[in-house]
Records
---
Amino acid sequence: MATDPLQVRDAAPADIAAIQSIYAHHVLNGLATFEEVPPSVEEMRRRYADISGAGLPYLVAELDGAPAGYAYCALYRTRSAYRFTLEDSVYVRHDMLGRGLGSALLAELVRRAQALGYRQLVAVIGDSAHLASIALHARHGFLPVGTLRSTGFKFGRWVDSVLMQRPLAEGDATHPVNR
């Protein structure tokens, strides 16, 4: 049982081994990601450097002095017209699910993405049966915008991707500031 309060903070290089462990469990046991082989710590370090180096939020939920979840925003797509849209990713340690860590992480991602001037946040949720992630995103203002049927094949079956989206700040009501 956790005794220290939950702290959401910027991820640091020292967190990457714990982040890799959290993610590896999801890769090997779940459909939240369509990766099938867990990336190495070195690969996770590279991904962290790319995202944080671009000035995008990469967060850790720390409980009892150790990372119990992490989340980040990445560019939704790299073509220039997508420059005001980010995609979120949220992962919680398998033994910490249902304790509000994902909600704390997603709330802070939304806040930071909006503060950075982004206008849309997209969630690409692996598996249309991943009701916890769909509900989490809905609680944070995301609306379902589509389901891509059978876009992944993992664990011997076809898996859908659920698309959800929420506006940030003024969304598409005004022209954005040039980026």
---
Amino acid sequence: MMKTYANIAAGVVQYLLPTDGDITEMFHPDMLWVDVTSVSPLPAEGWAAVEADGVWSFAAPIPPVPTDTELKAAALSERDARLSLANEATAGMADAFLADLLSDAEKSMFKAYALYKLSLNKIDKQPGYPATIEWPTSP
């Protein structure tokens, strides 16, 4: 009968091994293997493993909460990427706009991008920044 075993080291699932063989004959006796065949949900590599009174329990790792500095850095990186795309879309249009060389449709598009870029540069003024950001829609 096929069983699934978890190799545990330092309280963490290192890897899983499905086998129909005798796990005690396959590995060094110092390696800790736990039968997780009937555990639901099945633990995965990196999960915490705790034994109490002969009963094992498993928990998925909790991802670290990003710091305010990390959230700001990610937001500014996203903003810069969006600004770069907007600048590419309007490349060369500023001079043409000032010289009144754009068609009405081009003027409308240029103004929409100008508003979009202005909104991108004001994301840090939004309530909840940097944890929550309502990104403006690109024209």
---
Amino acid sequence: MHHAFDDWMKRHFPEVKFERYADDILAHCSSQKQAGKVLEAIRIRLKECGLELHPEKTKIVYCKDADRRSSHEHESFDFLGYTFRPRLSKNKYGKHFVGFSPAISKRAENKIRKEIRHWAIHLRSDKSITDLANMFNAQMQGWVNYYGRYYKSAMYPSLRNIERFLVRWVMRKYKRLQGHKRRATNWLGCVRKREPKLFVHWRLGLGSPVG
């Protein structure tokens, strides 16, 4: 792709900035007319190289924001685990405005939830709560580092699933708490109060309340 696309793009459209990761490409055009021209040229170029554009993923997207207020068939796109779309933002002076911004995509959220389920935390009653933190914190921190760069709160619902499985773990590990979800939740909240940094999601304030 470096020869088939990168070098060719720089030669034929030096004014158009682009990003490419493997075979996912994002090109920034200044108008719909330019976008149509560039898209058709890319289509022809890839065909010359024995390649073709993905029929469903390929589209022209209008980056709607406070300055671009028209409408278009497509006003969002996914790239590298993020969904870019119009979102309400706040500047450094506290004023709200609409910006075209990224946040974790639904597909990435689902992958995180699936991974958490595969951990089967609730079945690991042979482990201590510190063991669980040591086993999974690195993965959680990786998610926070990557998907938390923009609109960190958008990934919070996915991380809260960890707490749900931890409550089930408590009920399974301690016989006196079996079948007592509220008491198990309270037990976990007390641990969090003593060790608020034990789990990565606790450091973000996503733990069980005490009460």
---
Amino acid sequence: MRSDLPHLLTGLPGLLLAGVAAGCAGNTPPSAETGVVTGTVGYRERMALPPDAVVQVQLSDVSLQDVPAQIVAETTLSPAGRQVPLPFELRYDPAKIEPRRRYAVRATIRSEGQLLFTTDTQVSVLTEGHPNKVDLMLVRVTSPEAAAPDQLWGTSWLLEDIGGSGVIDNAQATLEFPETGKVAGRGSCNRFFGSVEVTGRSIAFGPLGSTRMACPEAVMNQEAKYLKALQDAERYGFDGAFLLIHARGMDRPLRFTRHTP
């Protein structure tokens, strides 16, 4: 038995090394790691994001000038009622990043398919000593269409829905833009009139005057709800043939169709 002991001791280090190697192999992280760029998306304007807002953040290769940037990774966020600054986490494949190239992050905010905010400067990340955490400050977009709200002046609209609750069939409510800066219409029972300011996609109604007729309670309630929504209006947009007006405190917009007085 003693003659076998040296052989056993000689083999023991090999067995121990094999066991250590096996243990290390089990704890080795995957070779294909995921990189991440984090940060926030915000803007300076004091206005709330629409409920349907969509935020898109992209990581792009911007090494070449006069050539469209190649998108390396992107992510889409739905704020769902949250307001800026909004945190984001953009994951990318490190194998696609070359140390000698330049990369930048950009972001956009859209609503109803319309571009509301975008980055207007190049925010570099990852290579050439740039960080992997950035705070993006977007600027408001004014498109030619949004800058000239001539599509509203001289038009008349029939109210079809108030925040998803519908309207009374025999109590028509209307909205008219007879001339630049002026608004009028029928609340459901009474005629109303006043001023309106339209800037880009923002819309704000001034104090509204109205006649003093009395109608059934349900009609008067609808009129009060409609006029309050107009006073709380923040922005407008179009969905096909429909005019949509979004108001504070309402999950869904006022919806109108074209109307011939």
